[in-house]
Design goal:
Layout: E1 6-12, E2 25-30, H1 36-44, E3 62-67, E4 71-75, H2 86-102, E5 106-114, H3 121-132, E6 137-142, H4 149-164, E7 173-175, H5 184-198
Parallel strand pairs: 2-4, 2-5, 5-6, 6-7
Antiparallel strand pairs: 1-3, 3-4
Length: 199
């Protein structure tokens, strides 16, 4: 799939104010600093489409971008930023959970994982919660260009073997780099294949 158009539609903190209509939505989520804005800009080939907040973990908005006038890419707030106060963390949790659990158009959730790090408890718990709630998701390993080929494969393999302790069947996964555009075609083809199965 090629992206011919990508336009920002709306930002809000309330799932009830998300756009009406039946277009499928593909949401992207991850911890602060995982490289979400860069990945979204790389996927859409629009450099300034998703803006990273200057303070990590500040963004508390659900952002909708209409792609090819036929599906939405949804940028969800980052989770788990330590410097956010308890109240802020609770607010974010509510925004994220309301969207994920209540938004019928949400077709697939992409969970972003920094490929350089050991499996983080917060990510593993989040994925476990998705599984418990029957939410379809895929894993996107980011920042693959920061590691050599051998190390990236090793990191991804050890991550997946950790997941196998919890999961009978592993979710789909993609290895990406916003710098080299690695993984772009694979993710867009995956979205396109789901869209074709819907229509």
């Amino acid at each position: 799939m090629e992206i011919s158009s990508a336009e920002f539609i709306i930002s809000n903190t309330n799932v009830k104010k998300c756009p009406a209509g039946v277009f499928p939505e593909y949401a992207f989520i991850g911890r602060s600093n995982v490289g979400k804005s860069s990945l979204i800009n790389m996927l859409t080939a629009h450099k300034g489409l998703a803006m990273a907040s200057s303070t990590p973990g500040k963004t508390m908005l659900i952002n909708h971008f209409l792609i090819n006038k036929s599906w939405y890419l949804v940028d969800l707030p980052g989770y788990g930023y330590a410097r956010r106060g308890q109240k802020g963390q609770e607010q974010i949790k509510t925004i994220i959970e309301d969207y994920i659990l209540e938004r019928e158009q949400m077709t697939n959730l992409f969970v972003l994982i920094d490929s350089r790090l050991e499996p983080q408890k917060i990510d593993l718990e989040f994925m476990e919660w998705l599984g418990e709630n029957g939410i379809p998701f895929a894993i996107v390993f980011t920042k693959a260009d920061k590691l050599s080929g051998g190390r990236i494969n090793g990191n991804v393999s050890s991550y997946l073997s950790k997941l196998k302790k919890q999961w009978e069947e592993l979710p789909p996964y993609f290895v990406t780099s916003a710098e080299t555009r690695m993984g772009r075609k694979e993710i867009l083809d995956y979205i396109e294949s789901i869209n074709k199965s819907i229509y």
